[in-house]
Design goal:
By secondary structure, the chain is an alpha+beta fold. The protein is built from 7 helices and 8 strands, in the order H-H-H-H-H-H-H-E-E-E-E-E-E-E-E. Strand 2 and strand 3 form a beta hairpin.
Length: about 260
C-alpha cells in the first residue's frame, strides 16, 4: 500500500480490503501518529454515525467512499517528535512583520480537514439513502392518522346509524352509516376465514343494481370504509368472491343484505 499514512480515513470507515487492513494494522502498531489519528477520527465517525442508525447503509456506499478517498491526496508522514523538537529549538531567522508559522501543525490540520471531509461525505451518503425509508414511514403515519380521523368523524356524526346482522356463513357484521357525511363503514367481528384465494366483497345497492366496492380479507375482526358515497344508495351487501373481486354478485355468494 503506497502512502500508508494516508490510509487512516479508509481504516476508520472500514474501507480497506483484507490485505490492506493487515498491512495498515501492522503499521499502526509502530506509528504513534496514525494511532492517535485513528482514535480521534474513530470518535468523530461514531458521533457522525448517529445520523444514520435507522438502517444499515446501502451496499454501494463502500464504492462511493473509496471513490471519494481516491480523490484525497495524502500528505507525507510527519517527522518524529524528536526531530520536530529539534527544529523548534533551532534559532529561526527573523522575518519582518510576519508571525512564525508552525508548518507541522498546518500540514496536520490540512490532513485532518481532508479526512473529516471523507467521513462527513460517507455519513451524508448513508443519510440520503435513508431518505426514502423516512419518507415512507411519514407517509404511512399520515395515512394512519387520516384513517383514525375519518373513523372518529363518522362515529360521532349526529345522524350516525348502525345496522347489525349475522352473515350466512357466520360472523357478526355492522354497517355504520352517516347520510350527512355521505359515508359508510363495514365492521366485521369474528369473520370466518375464506382462504387466500377468496375475499369478502362490499356492495352498494341502488334498487336492484349492485355496485362493486372494496375487498376485505377474511378471518378475525376487520373494518373497511365503503369507497362509494351513499347518494342514491338503498342498501349495503357483502358477498364472498374470488380474490380479484367480481363485477356482479350471485345469490350463492351473497352473505348479507341490509336495507337503509
Amino acid at each position: 500500500m503506497s502512502e500508508i499514512h494516508g490510509a487512516v480515513g479508509s481504516y476508520v470507515v472500514n474501507a480497506l480490503d483484507p490485505d490492506e487492513m493487515d498491512e495498515f494494522e501492522a503499521h499502526l502498531a509502530v506509528c504513534p501518529t496514525c494511532s492517535r489519528e485513528v482514535q480521534e477520527f474513530g470518535e468523530t465517525a461514531a458521533e457522525l454515525s448517529l445520523l444514520a442508525i435507522v438502517t444499515p447503509p446501502p451496499a454501494e456506499l463502500r464504492g462511493s467512499i473509496l471513490a471519494a478517498i481516491s480523490q484525497v491526496r495524502p500528505l507525507p508522514p510527519e517527522p518524529p517528535a524528536e526531530l520536530a523538537l529539534v527544529e523548534a529549538e533551532a534559532p529561526a531567522a527573523p522575518q519582518a512583520h510576519q508571525p512564525p508559522v508552525d508548518e507541522l501543525a498546518l500540514r496536520r490540520q490540512q490532513r485532518r480537514t481532508r479526512l473529516l471531509s471523507v467521513l462527513v461525505a460517507a455519513v451524508l451518503a448513508a443519510a440520503l439513502a435513508l431518505g426514502g425509508v423516512v419518507y415512507g414511514l411519514v407517509q404511512s403515519r399520515q395515512a394512519q392518522v387520516a384513517q383514525q380521523t375519518a373513523e372518529t368523524e363518522l362515529l360521532t356524526a349526529p345522524d350516525v346509524q348502525t345496522y347489525s346482522t349475522t352473515m350466512k356463513d357466520g360472523g357478526q357484521v355492522s354497517f355504520v352509516v352517516s347520510k350527512s357525511l355521505n359515508r359508510a363503514m363495514f365492521i366485521g367481528k369474528d369473520l370466518p376465514a375464506v382462504g387466500t384465494d377468496k375475499r369478502y366483497q362490499l356492495w352498494t345497492l341502488e334498487g336492484k343494481r349492485a355496485i362493486a366496492d372494496n375487498l376485505v380479507p377474511g378471518g378475525g375482526d376487520r373494518q373497511q370504509f365503503f369507497r362509494e358515497t351513499l347518494e342514491g344508495v338503498t342498501g349495503l351487501a357483502v358477498s364472498i368472491e374470488d380474490a380479484g373481486g367480481a363485477q356482479q354478485p350471485t345469490p350463492s355468494t351473497i352473505q348479507t343484505v341490509t336495507e337503509l
